[in-house]
Amino acid sequence: MYRVLIIDDEEPLREAIRILGDWEGLQVDEVLEATDGRAGLAMLEKHNTDLVMVDMKMPELNGVEFLRIVEREYPDLLTIVISGYNDFEFTRQAIHSKVVDYLLKPINRHDLNQALRKAIDILEAKRQLQSESITRNIAFNMSLPKLKEKIYLSIIERSFKKQSSRAFLPLIGADDPANRFGALVLRILNMEAVRDSRFNSDTELLYFAVANVINEVAVDNLLCFSFANPKQEREIIAIYTVNGGYPQDLSFRSERFMKKVVSTLSDLFGVLSAGGIGQACQNVVELAQSYEEALSSVLAIDLLKLKGEAVIGSAGKSVVSKDIHSFSSRVPILRSALEAGNLNHAKSVMAEFAKKIKVSGAFSLGAADRTVREIVVLLNDVVLELGVPAESLPPSGGERALRALGLRTDFATFDQFESLLIQLTEYYGEQIRRSMAANRPFNVDDIRAYIDNHYFEDIKISMFTEKYFLSREYLMKLFKQQYGYGIHEYVQKVRMDKAKELLDDSSLKIQEISEMLGYKDKNYFSKAFRNYYSLSPSEYRANQDGEGKK
């Protein structure tokens, strides 16, 4: 994350920059402000700042003077110049100070974010160079792995042109005709749990550690280069290279290698993984097919048979269920439950769907992924129709989007998969509740009417706070202002008034009256009645009988 300082004596301009800047997309977590160059220097002393945006014409200390001081005292600080004066003196100083960009007022969104992106790219490059893993051959050591990763990804995505990219072949050993290549795929089943407990919630650090283990595990002279798939969460791709060998021998060696990898990752970090192995090939371009074979064997692993342990899929094996697990037929029922605010019913619908999958006998990891995506798409449509704003919803079933909503997406067992479905149900139910509460006109009479009609139930204030999306304190204060009673007091009053009415009917036993009023215990009802009227139900009834005889 980065910190940016805006220096300008005009508050409207500072505010415009704050509004127009794509700070989140640029990974800027703090934007500071100063009204002139001198105040800006004071801020630089106080805060570790990555980028300064400075106006050229300001009181106290103008932009030219500020840049000269920065050039001398903060030589590594990046600057972007802003000016409403297309003056050569300002431009000359900006060039001399090697500013990142020079923006003229009025500032527009595109130019601003283009300049900011340029600065952030420079900062990111600098941070890479300052990494602890830097060696004396830093430029080569830092760029070579990334370059190899890009080469392998282009091969896997079938965009690599062997003829035009011949110069890159030696970097991956593809210039040696004796070399054989194969792809392995590793899916981290408990990524979030391990990341949070062992890697300080840093996904990239987890990926780095896993890739490092894979690269360091040596079996039968297989050389391995691995990296996280940038387009698929929790997936590590490993490309192995071996000199010579027969197909059956390479298959055996690669399987041994994969078994050692999943075992080592489990022992070191508690990582539960699902592995897939692609066949070895002589032509490096055929790695695309090897990767697809490895991925298919991972996605074909039967989730119903996973018991929270690492597993390796079998090449060419597929898991086929007799039932097609489509959720679309259950959407109307689930929608009805969510719209009515009956979350328990909605969760039971989802649980029943999970149960049907479980008894089907087979359910692959690939089918589980597709099911989550289908449910997200279907429920997005439902809640949008019910007035939930689009910005509250995940754009797709992608894991990053779901985690951004606070959902846990790990599933190393079917029970954990079912838990994710229940989480989704709860999330969408909450969004509907919030939307309906925000759009529902509130009238305190509704609470009184509910109590009058449901006095025999267990009435809690949280029922109303959740329904109307109002604070407990505000609701209680509003009700008391309107009726002179607190909500609990009013519930008690209604029950006691009704108790008198029922006690007047001599055919009803006190036990029956107690149950009719919502009291499970006759003694508790008698005690409540005595506290309210200073006599017991029996005494009240006796008094009424005595008056009737008179």
TrEMBL record:
Domain HTH araC/xylS-type, chain residue ranges per copy: 445-543
Chief place of localization: cytoplasm
Modified residues (4-aspartylphosphate): 55
Gene3D superfamilies (alphabetical): 3.40.50.2300, Homeodomain-like
All residue ranges annotated as the Response regulatory domain in the record: 3-120
SUPFAM superfamilies in UniProt: CheY-like, Homeodomain-like
CDD domains tied to this protein: REC_YesN-like
Pfam families referenced in this protein's UniProt entry, alphabetically: HTH_18, Response_reg
Subcellular location per the Swiss-Prot or TrEMBL entry: Cytoplasm
Keyword entries, A-Z: Cytoplasm, DNA-binding, Phosphoprotein, Transcription, Transcription regulation, Two-component regulatory system
Keyword flag Ligase: no
InterPro entries associated with the record: CheY-like_superfamily, Homeodomain-like_sf, HptR, HTH_AraC, HTH_AraC-typ_CS, Sig_transdc_resp-reg_receiver, Tscrpt_reg_AraC-type_HTH
Protein name: Response regulator
Organism: Paenibacillus puldeungensis
